[in-house]
Amino acid sequence: MRQILLLCITLLCPFVADAQDDSNILKGIEINGIYYNLNTYNQKAEVMTGADKTRVYITIPTTVTYEGKNYIVRTIGFGAFSNFSSLAGITLPETLESIGEHAFSNCKKLNNVSIPAHVKTVESYAFSGCSGLRKLTLTYGLVSIGKRAFASAPIESLYIPASLTSIDDYAFSGAHLTLLDIPSTLTYISSCAFQCTTLKTIRVASGNPVYDSRDNCNAVIETARNALRVICPDTKVPETVEVIDSFLCWRGCSITPPSSIKEIGKKAYYGAYGTGRLHEGLEVIGDSAFWAASIQGTVSLPSTLRDVGVAVYEANNLIKEVVMADGLKVLGKAMFRGNQWIPSVKFPEGITEIPDEIFSASMSLADVQLPSTLQRIGNSAFRGCALTDVQLPDGLATIGEYAFSGCQSLTHLEIPATVKSIGKGAFASTQLTRATLPDGITRVSDYLYNRCTSLTVIDLPTSVTRIGRDAFAGCKGLTKLEIPNHVTDFENGAFNDCSSVATLSIGNNVKTIADNSFGGMDALTDVYCYSENVPETNYWAFEDSHHHSLTLHVPASSVEAYKAASPWREFREIVPLTDEEYPLGIRQPGSASQVRVSYTLNGRKATPNDRGIIITRQGNTAVKHIDGSVGKMK
Q1: How far apart are CA 518 and CA 499, in angstroms?
Q2: Cα–Cα distance between 425 and 382 in angstroms, integer?
Q3: Counts for the chain of helices (H) and strands (E), in that order
Q4: Is the peptide bond before 61 cis (omega within 30 degrees of 0)?
Q5: 219 and which of 86, 235, 567, 573 could share a cystine (Cβ 3.0–4.6 Å)?
């Protein structure tokens, strides 16, 4: 028995191969002004296109003959008659089984189409953009209609045959229907299949296992989910409905969600007339649910929200107030991005994270109140806002990339000691005057204070060892730059284009200086480098800082080493540091008597930030300074 089965399979394989073999297809055969692909194995024909795009009426035959063989026309292929601008009428053969994607798309004069009984599928976009198509006949046998199959066609009436089981996205969007009857056999309808402003009546046949039209609501409701699926301008949403489905509404549409609603789907009110005051009990809002919706005045967010999608209220330029209920714990990424008229916002206690881009590009937002529970501010959360002063709470651990970038009115921001991570560009292009980072930060992130033109003071904790790419580039308010000893590495462009810096001092532990780290310093007159070991320095480290005309001050024991290394040897002159040019607490190599140490009155070693009375000892000499003027011995 097994041998017989194997023999049968062996004998059948060549025939299966022949059926699939492309060599059996005669392509682009013209017969009476229509091009076909002809299958010589099964003698089926596929319509590819017409020879004359100016034809007004086309009749496609049931069979065609070529070289003595008859071929049955079964399919109209992809884009066969797309953009035939003169085509006003078409007769389709009864043998037809499938109408391909874009087969008649944008045939704007086509006004009447009858789908033959053997057609099982009308593919996506088949008649999309047929702006003159007013009459459509669907016959029994049709099973599915693809997305946008008849989109933008002003069809005035529609009979749905009992054989049809599926209607995909936007299939009849823009139709001029007034009545929609859903048969009991139709078990899948996309929520955006019928976006028709003219609909007056929607009915679902009793016995439909998936949908109903309860309480004469003029809508299609998915029974198991209690989800609103298809609506019309006269829909009255029953109190039993719990879900407003994705893509439900359209521009100009308005649906007020009843208090029973627990979920609003993705793009449910996209471009429509939305509601701003959301009720308690609502739990889920999908991506872009109210994107560009015409919402005026106040948006109220209930405490019951547990899942909020991306860009929920983006591009709503009429919102002027956002009220977040006490107990609200969840917000969405880019939730109010690009809103132009929200002046202030208060985040309730319990919020631990402000999502990425939540108010990005909200150019009127000048005041935010942050909760004590906050732990993270997301990437670009307030990028491009009008903030002037932000109070960050203790307990905050993370400030995301570009979180406050472009806030061109921001002049003051204190970073709490609890912050352990600050993303790149977090404060770029602001008007901050002081850069102060908390202890524990080891690297100044890329672009962190980039183009902060009002910055005059940089105060880095001893934990910082590395300055990131372009971290302080373009800080034109800096006039004197003193790099502390704990900083060892400078990445590309670290202080590039700080064009007002006249004096540059580099600490004694520097190891590497990358391209343009100190480039574009037009006002530079002197460079002091306290490292005995010549740093590993890229040739372009001082690009456009006219270092060829500058004096370089280095430890006396290292002068010759600097003269032998590039780009240091290109300075106009290299001279040894004098004792007076050494900062407090650093000794001139080989001169133990020059050790200088400063103390506060309580005995603690002083820092340059200390104020009050400071005692400095150098050798056997002690000098008292008032108001923290720790500096050169006098």
Answers
A1: 10
A2: 12
A3: 2, 48
A4: no
A5: 235
Dihedral pair phi/psi, residue 114, rounded to 5°: -120, 120
Place of tokens 């704007």: 108
CA–CA distance, 97 with 552 (Å, rounded to integer): 85
Find where tokens 């004359």 sit.
Answer: 52
DSSP string, 545-578: TTGGGSEEEE-GGGHHHHHTSTTGGGSSEEEEPP
Q: Strand, helix or coil at 124?
A: coil
Calculate the CA dihedral of residues 242, 248, 254, 255 and round it to 10 degrees: -10
pTM reported for the whole predicted model: 0.81
How far is 383 from 403, CA to CA, in rounded Å? 6
Q: What is the 3-state secondary structure (H, E, C) of 320-337?
A: EEEEECCCCCCCCCCCCC
The full DSSP string for 610-634 is: --SEEEEEETTEEEEEETT--SS--
Contact between 293 and 316 (Cβ < 8 Å): yes
Write out pLDDT tens, residues 348-397.
999 999 999 999 999 999 999 999 999 999 999 999 999 999 999 999 99
* Residue recorded with tokens 């078409």: 90
* Helix ranges (DSSP H) in 288-423: none
Give the separation between CA 87 and CA 483, rounded to whole angstroms: 77
- Give the Cβ contact number of residue 492 at 10 Å: 19
- 571: Cβ–Cβ under 8 A, 6 or more apart, which residues? 527, 547, 548, 550, 551, 552
**Contacts for 63-66: CB closer than 8 Å, 24+ residues apart:** 63/95, 64/31, 64/32, 64/36, 64/38, 65/31, 66/26, 66/29, 66/31, 66/36, 66/38
Per-residue pLDDT reduced to its tens digit, 77-93: 999 999 999 999 999 99
Phi-psi region of 170 (alpha: psi -120 to 50; beta: other; left: phi over 0): left
Distance in angstroms (rounded) separating the CA atoms of residues 397 and 589: 41
Q: Which residues pair with 434 in a beta bridge?
A: 457
Q: How confident is the model at residue 317 (pLDDT cuts 50, 70, 90)?
A: confident
